[in-house]
Structures are given as C-alpha cells and as structure tokens.
Amino acid sequence: MAGYIYAVIKGEKALEKYCEKRWGERPRFMESFAHINEVTIERIEEMSPTDDGYKQYFILYMVDPKHESLLTSFSRIRSQVHEAIRTGTARLLAS
Questions:
Q1: Order of strands, sheet of 33-36, starting from the edge strand that comes earlier in the sequence
Q2: Would you say 36 and 19 are in contact if contact means Cβ atoms under 8 Å apart?
Q3: Distance from first CA to last CA of the chain, Å, rounded?
Q4: Can you give the three-state secondary structure of the chain, one letter per residue?
Q5: Using CA atoms, how far apart are residues 62 and 69, in angstroms rounded to an integer?
Q6: pLDDT tens digits, residue range 47-61?
Q7: In 3D, which of 9, 93, 18 has the Cα closest to residue 55?
Q8: Cα–Cα distance between 7 and 93 in angstroms, integer?
Q9: Which of 19, 62, 76, 78 is deepest in the core (most CB within 10 A)?
C-alpha cells in the first residue's frame, strides 16, 4: 500500500511562490483544502515557540507510490505536523 510523503510551508506567500515554481500555478482553496495535480494542500493555524501568536502553515500531502509508509492517513500526518510545529522541530520547506 502506498503511503504519503509530506512537506510543511509557513505562510501563504511562501506557499504560492513554491507552488508557482514547482507546478506553475497557485493553489485555490475551498475552506481549508486545495489541490494541485495529485497534491492535497491543507491550511492549518498553529504556533511554534518562535511565533508571535498563531500563524498559517500549510501541509502538502503527496502520494508516494514507490515506498510503503506508516504515514497512510492525513490525520496521522496532521497530528505529527501540529506536534512538530508546537515543539519547534518542524522542518519547513523553503519556497
């Protein structure tokens, strides 16, 4: 069974810049989710130890057909990302 790989981006401008560079388009959100090709993007609000209040973060969920993964659900990934941001251990994808 294929799993998911994911990336985390902080800030809407950084997300738009990354998506334009990678896929040639900006995400269009319906509520908290957007899609570009096979990628699902979720907008969340969270606060890291270095943030001054809650900030927008974006989780990019990408199917990884080459590798089986324990990360087989969005909810499991989402929980890990929230915890990593809160503890300051999230590795953010640069735009």
A1: 2-10, 55-68, 39-46, 33-36
A2: yes
A3: 30
A4: CEEEEEEEEECHHHHHHHHHHHHCCCCCCECCEEEECCEEEEEEEECCCCCCCCEEEEEEEEEEEEEECCCCCHHHHHHHHHHHHHHCCCCECCC
A5: 12
A6: 999 999 999 999 999
A7: 9
A8: 6
A9: 19
- Global confidence as pTM: 0.86
Q: Could you give the CA distance from residue 17 to residue 79 in angstroms, rounded to a whole number?
A: 26
Q: Are strands 33-36 and 2-10 parallel, antiparallel or unpaired?
A: unpaired
Q: How far apart are CA 34 and CA 18, in angstroms?
A: 14
Q: Choose among 90, 72, 80, 78: nearest CA to 33.
A: 78
Query: What is the token pair recorded at 42?
Result: 């979720």
The residue to which tokens 């609000």 are assigned? 45
Give the pLDDT of residue 5: 84
Which residue carries 């941001």 as its tokens?
Answer: 85
